[in-house]
Amino acid sequence: MSAWFVEIFQVVFVVALAPGLVGLIRWIKARLQSRLGAPPGQPYRELGKLFHKEAVVSKNASWIFRFAPYAVSASTLAIAFLVPVLVVPRRLDMVGDLFVVVYLLLLGTFWLALAGLDPGSAFGGMGSSREVTVAALAEPTTATAIFSLALGAGSTNLGAIVAAALNDPWTVLTPGHLLAFAALFIVAIAETGRLPVDNPSTHLELTMIHEAMILEYSGRYLALLEWAAWLKLFVFLSLLANLFFPWGIATTLTPGALSWAIVTLLVKLALLAVVIAVMETRVAKLRLFRVPELLTASFVLALLAITSSFLLR
Amino acid sequence: MRLFSKILSVGIVTEPLDNGGEEVELARQVAAKTQKLLGRAVGIREVDAGSCNGCEIEITGLTSPIYDLERFGLCFVASPRHADMLLVTGPVTRNMEVPLRKTYEATPDPKLVVAVGDCAKTCGVFQGSYAVVGSVDAVIPVDVFVHGCPPEPSDILRGILAALDRLPPK
Amino acid sequence: MIFVLLLLTPLLAAATAALVRPYRLWVGWVTTVLSFAPLGAALWLSARVLEGEVLTWGPGEFLRADALSALLALCVSFVAALAAWLGPGLAVEDGYDAAERRSYRVFSNLFAFTMLLAVTAHNVGVMWVAVEATTITSAMLVPLHVTKASVEASWKYILIGSVGIALAFVGTVLAYFDFVNLAGEQASALNWTSLLASAPSLHREVLKLAFVFILIGYGTKAGLAPMHTWLPDAHSESPSALSAMMSGVLLAVAIYAIVRWKIVVDAAVGPAFTDRLLIALSLLSLTIAAFSLLGQRNYKRMLAYSSIEHTGLTCLGLALGPLGVFAAMLHMVNHSVTKSMMFLLAGRIQQRYRSTEIVEVPGLIRTMPVTAGCFAAGMFAIAGLPPFGLFISEFALVRAGFTAGRAWLMGAVLALLVVAFIALVTHLNRMLYGTPPKSTSVGEHTPWALAPIGLCVVILVILGLALPAPVSRLLNKVVEIAAP
Amino acid sequence: MSSLFSQLAVLGSSLTLIFALMLLWHRSVDAYTTAFAWQSVVLAGIVAVVAYFERDPELYFVAAMLLLLKGWLIPRLLRRMEGPFGAEQELQPYVNTATSLLISGLLVLFAYAVCRPLVALSHLPTRAGMPLALGLIFVSLFVIASRKKALTQVIGFLMLENGIALLAVLGTYGIPLVVEIGVFLDLLLGFMVMQLFVYRIHETFESLDVEQLGRLKH
Amino acid sequence: MTLMGTLVTGAIVCYLAGALAALLGNDRWGRILGAWGAASGAAISLSLGMVALASGSVFSAVFDFPSLTGFALRIDGLSAPFLILTGLVGAASSVYGAGYSAAYTGVYSLRKLGALFNLLLLTLTLQVMADNALTFLLLWEAMSLVAYLLVLTEHREPATVRAANWYLAITHVGFAALLAMFFLLSAGDLSTAFDTLRANAPVPTQRNAIFILALLGFSAKAGLIPLHVWLPMAHPVAPSHVSALLSGVVIKMGVYGFCRIVLDLMSGGPAWWGGLALALGVASALFGVLYALMEHDLKRLLAYHSVENIGIIFIGIGAGLMFQSYGLMSLAALGFVAALYHTINHACFKGLLFLGAGSVLHATHTRNMEEMGGLIKKMPRTALMFLIGAASISALPPLNGFASEWLIFQTLLGGSHIPEPAVALMIPIAVALLALSGGLAMACFVKAFGITFLAIARSPAAEKAHEAPLSMQAGMGILGLACIGLGLTPFFVVPVLGRALAGLDRLAWETTVFSLTLPLNTPATFGSMSSPLLAAGLLILLGLIPLALWVIGANRRTRVGDTWGCGRIAQTPRMQYTATAFAEPLRRVFAELYRPTKDLSIDFHPESKYFVQSIEYQSEIHPWFEKLLYQPLIGIFHRIADRVRWIQAGWLGLYLTYMLVGLIALLVLAWWTP
Questions:
Q1: Do residues C342 and C479 both lie within one domain?
Q2: Does the residue C142 lie in any domain?
Q3: ipTM reported for the complex, 2 dp
Q4: Longest CA span, chain E
């Protein structure tokens, strides 16, 4: 099977399944709340509806507002290309490593935050302000966690890290690795706007982060942004899954390996979805000014991870 | 842990579909309609144009586990930009006239308006008050009125159904 | 002939001014023209000295001029000419009455004469007499306008100056005592050359004692701390032209006296001793001057403290070996030109703003743009910025220090220089910019008076960019004398 | 012979020092002038003694000059100044009398210490007076520093000059005549200028108290 | 004459001619010709650097002036990158300045401005060529002085004079340190050629002193914490094209000098050298951006970001030094290359941002962001350029800031090869803080761009804004292109810089191979990144998304309406989020550090306290360093000065006592001195 075909396939796979994952999380949450809930396929329907609605744009907004959805989704898609989801090693490993992924995330945040400010609405500004705050505070944790992973693998290349974990499965159980996982998990929560950092289903403007920024969007723009956000969640979760529990990921390009990879990935994601849903049911949203405490905690975890990696190396 | 044991013990309380009853029947129809017309995903923006909040209490009931609006693909959204339908309650007061109109303008097409409660239609006991402009349809085009003071959640669902019915096919 | 021109013309000028009554403006111009004669003589003298001559005159070689004398004579006569040109007594609107003008013309010329005599006298006793006489002649001029402040300043000046110089005489007597005890009494005993010739056999302990007194004595006139206290008062209260002469060359003449004695004492005791004393006093001067500059509120006093700082630097250079002596002498020349120019400019500013407080002279750059420009250039120069001569000499001085292995000392000096620099520049900017008071008129009133100032700036820049060969040769000859 | 010379020199030196110390316990300017005049006379006497023993005609001349100038002319001028400012007294010096005397004693001791190499080096019979001369210089300096009236300071300064002259005479039997004449001239001029300024101070400040001279600061 | 000799002469002639033209010409022609002189001189400087890099040859010349024998110039691999950045930023800001300075006509002296601008470029160009300490120091002082006078351009503003004072004071402290440093280094003889100095080996204690002095002296110029205070004062008040030069080039001379001394003349030192530089770099990076966040003066904000970026550069150098001391030469080279790369990049994007800020200032006559807004519609090209700059400085891929910051991250990761526990702790913290400052920089530039250019105008001035004239746009365009170009070509830039460094005599990494392959393969092979591919990918995706939308037949109707504000009557500028509000969460997070003072005053209606007439909220940040370091320091100095003032108490008796005491003291001292 052509290597390039696999690259494309991965992206299509990710893009296609991303709304489903969100739907799954929502469905599990509904069940946990003793509700029937919408079926897991609901996000696809929402996208379909949004694509067929008109878009209303504020008269104060500039081209930034219209361009941002494309920029955000492009950068998120680029991440989808770079993250190993099904196969390692990959051709695209050389294009970017884990740092590139992190900075692409920042690129998306940058555009989205600008778009939030563009129409001049107070909500948008508030959302942007909070979003960049959270993004900035999550940065050190991400970098430190990456560092600790890179220490183990000798590279910041995602493929190399996953491959290293595959070669020596026991590294996964080292304290450094586990702590780094915890740290990155918190970052993922923060970056993807899940509870307790942000409530994806809130209706109160004053408690919003991500939602506040896109409050002004409608129609296809909203669809793109929502999809990009879901994509981000999917990519983040599969990254977590593959970095720390790489079993099942394909190392050859045979159809069998690939299908096995798909299956294991889906299982891992489902497990993570359950974890997230349970957690979101369990905890309430934090006050905005307590979010830094959470992120600091994650930073400490990451630092501990790196220290133990150094010491136990 | 206690939370989880509670979740397990309660189970799903949403009224099952095969339970009969008017609401469920309605719901089924709504589900079918929304699927057809809006891809079975409708964002609802609630606008309180001056109600006594009785209607709001009932509307809130729609999101409870019992009625669980979400299972039909309906959900309340935070911005009219995200909405497909406006749920307007109460008589339109002077202060809420412009906001109501603005909300209507802010909602992208295609869109629906459901006016909930007697006040929305007749202004109820507030009729003739110096602070009241008039009924909702005096300000924005209304697709469906839902009667009742306040209407029951099932009535509201019926109203939504009626509105979806009126949506011109795309 | 040279000596006649050098010494008698000032006396002639003084006599003219004293005898013509009532005072007329032409007298001022005559004395001004006459003041160029010493300058010419000093130039001539320097030319002769550069050819390797040592000029002497009079019974028992009463006057003697070597390179060191020539250098000082040049400075003194230049500044004296400048002060004559820009001092009171030439124009109607200078704000002085006839008696004051005459007094200025008489005593400034006598002052110049005493300084020239001090640097050309062969006999260190006569040199002392001349230096003492500078105190008298200049003290007469400090309260040209009698005010409480100027009387106070002059009393402090004359008392401290006289006491100090008396102590220098104690030193002279002690050195003479030493000499007489070894070589017997003779008429030429206090002649500098005889002292130097017999120095190696002189008694060390006594000479050391003598040098302490001499350093304290002449150091008082030079403005070395802790004997500097008269200097800010006298410099700030006297007429600007006199301040220019005092700060520009009187200090240099006192340093000259110290150098003369240092040569003798070094020959007997070795340079380590004098170096240590000089370093101690100059470091104290630098410290006091730098921090006084920081809190200064009066720009003429600021200039005076800067003179203390530069005296300190010059004396420091003297203690740093031949390179240091070269730097010190260059520094002295640069300082003469700069500081006399600065005091003359300060006089212009004072005349316009009627105040010597820094905060009361804002917006200089708008009211008197050319004066402000020259003032800024001068301030940059005394703060030690390129492309002015003082930068080069300070640079050379620091270099001498590092070459002499005194890195820590130089570190301290650099730090103090930075403090002084910051103070000076801050004060300068406070004066240059801002909004001038409404009552202050705008424009340069007497532009012709800026010509000599411009000349000073040019000289400074030349000294900063390219040290002319004759100057450096003269300085090298001085170094040969002062640090053999 | 030589011991008599030496005795006389030391006696004279001690006398000059005592006259200087008189400045510290007297309060009236009149007394100061008298002390100075007597000190100058003693100084002239010492010079004359040296001239006699050394048979140096130059020194006779110097002695005469001293007597004329410092023993007669300057005290006369000083007395004339006392006319207008007679009431000015040294009432409250910066340092009180007892402390002043103590400090003076210390200064004289210090002078002895400093003079050790001088005395060791010299073989003149007058050498024993040199520390006293230096002591006189120090004490005069202290007087100038610690007294408040301009006139007192002038007298202190004149005593300082006396001390130097004494040092010169004791150490070297006088300095070369050229210098000596210059010094006299300077002294006279200097005194005149100081006198002028004393008048000016009195005119401007209506007092001779130098404490008033305190406006120029920092 | 060789090609390089011709170029050097050409550059000098151009600058001098430009200065002369500016001095002699009238307002209009002097301004234009002066700018031409500067621009052509800068272009020659740029080509000079490129020639030096491309040919790898060394230019060397000694000039003898009457007083100054041995004015020595030499161009080598280390000079070349700095020549390039001088040329780039110089050319752009001269072109820009031609239009920008027109606003000064009749207000401030254009002649002075034009002439000094040319002179500054001249000194900057020559500075990196200096081949002995004397030349270096003279040019250094000349450069500082010219820059000082340029800062003073708008001298009628009190803030300008204050800033100039600070600048001159700190730069002079630095100069004193450098003077001492060079004297120690050259054992007193400043005209010793650098080549001879390389061969000399000072004793270790002296080496340490030299290092400390060099760090002090050069960090004063570069604006490293704690000597950074002059930057946020001086950069805002200077004319914007001068600010661009100050921030883009002048402070880089500190980096250059540090590299010249520590990498070249005294190659190799103990590990703590690197550690110290690294720690200072990290502190600067973090504090710089933290204070930038709280700034609402657009140019001050940019100036604080210069502190941040200088910190990042010093992180690279410090890490490199540390590796060098442990013998990890290829990692050391990576660190130095990364630092140099970031130096050039920062020059480009900070130059661009200052020019952009200048255009905004030109259009609105205010530097206060709270009075801007909506400018993207009035001045779209400026906005685009500022956006490029903002994205670059926020290290967003695929622009140039990202490329160099990525390299610095890779360098730091190399720290894992050092077995010291101290290093093991230091490096991760450095990584984390660097990442934090990167994230905060992004936040800060969202604020800077968003509040300035987006939404609706917050003041009448902003409403009346207009696009900058063509010359100013051109100036920004040059740097904008440079940002993009440098971002896309790390595969080319990195090996070239590596070779340039390898050309230095004492560096032992000649063997290090910097491969020229398409992806940026670093020598340590820690990670890989290819910004051209990334850029291409992003562009393709940007094209594909609309295509996909078209394929699925998405609704393409767009209706323009009011901004949604919960149905309020009308939107006014006061309803927008302000810069203060935007930064508020971060201020609360870092409140311990900022220690803001709050002042809330509410005016109630006289009749009832339920009616509020006005609410005033004021909150101020006192920069920590000014409060805790400089103010006490200044306080101490002033206290000493006050004490010293009492020496001159106006009391004659006291003065005479000083003499007596001085005499006695010296007599005692003489006693003890042989």
A1: yes
A2: no
A3: 0.87
A4: 104
